[in-house]
Structure prediction request, 115 residues.
Amino acid sequence: MAKGRHLIVDCTNVPMETCLDDKRLMEVMAEAAWSANANVISTSRYRFGHNSPPGCTVFILLDESHISAHTYAQEGKVAIDVFTCGERVKSEDILETIINKLKLEDYAVRALDRF
Prediction:
């Protein structure tokens, strides 16, 4: 029996405004965690572009593990990780909410059972 489920998601053709809106990304990811009954411990976000290409990173620390996103705004790409441990919180439920709220259409998901 696996200890956790890790979803690695590559999103393409994401609007630049979505890739740059670290506040909205953080809100959507935290809401997705709560809606799946995960326990959000802390959130963090950072917008790039001062000394690097534009984009952002968002991190949601969960009691059950984490959710993260890193964007490449000029390329319209977002890399998302959803990792949950245990049986109660489903990574797929969190990801479904993120995809729906952000209206992501072009994405590929790789799923890994951990341990």
Remarks:
- The beta strands are 4-12, 40-48, 55-62, 65-72, 77-85, 106-114.
- The longest strand covers residues 4-12.
- The chain is about 25% helix and 45% strand.
- Residues 24 and 110 are 24 Å apart (CA to CA).
